[in-house]
Amino acid sequence: QQQVKQSPQSLIVQKGGISIINCAYENTAFDYFPWYQQFPGKGPALLIAIRPDVSEKKEGRFTISFNKSAKQFSLHIMDSQPGDSATYFCAARDGSYQKVTFGIGTKLQVIP
Amino acid sequence: DAGVIQSPRHEVTEMGQEVTLRCKPISGHNSLFWYRQTMMRGLELLIYFNNNVPIDDSGMPEDRFSAKMPNASFSTLKIQPSEPRDSAVYFCASSPLTGGFPRAFFGQGTRLTVV
């Protein structure tokens, strides 16, 4: 049972396009929502994160949009580049237990 | 800073054998996490420690799995006996905040294959 549902599982985007990855959750105890980026053969690395009292956070070409009422959040990668090709994980932290649950991951391929 | 160091990077073992995975967290970090990654289940938290003390081991799949953190600079994850379904990539991560996962740093992982 996935507490954090992530889609799509794979995504192909042309260079310069916008990559969009969506996540949904049910647990209202989640209080922090990070996104991780993982390259082949490497461990995940924190990319950007948001708290539920904020509707949007932007860092460079990466933007998180957060809809608290719908219990959904998404990652937008603007002007996608081949170097962005990686697997992206959304995650959510349960503030009661300090435990983080990951989505299943989205494998992004940006083609020239 | 060398980052989180895991060893070995790859391990191939026969079913029934004991496997020990090792992790050296970043110096000064006081939280340590063990994760397992598979295609089917994604990233699963197995156990985490704060200040060398196990806080939550509810993700440890079976009694065959055990983890220790004898000091602030070393942790092990042991599987005894190993089974083919244990094949996965095991990650160790450390964080500078007690319970503050979002700033955790991951190691490069140990790819375990049990045949």
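qc> The first strand of chain B starts at residue 5 and ends at 7.
qc> done
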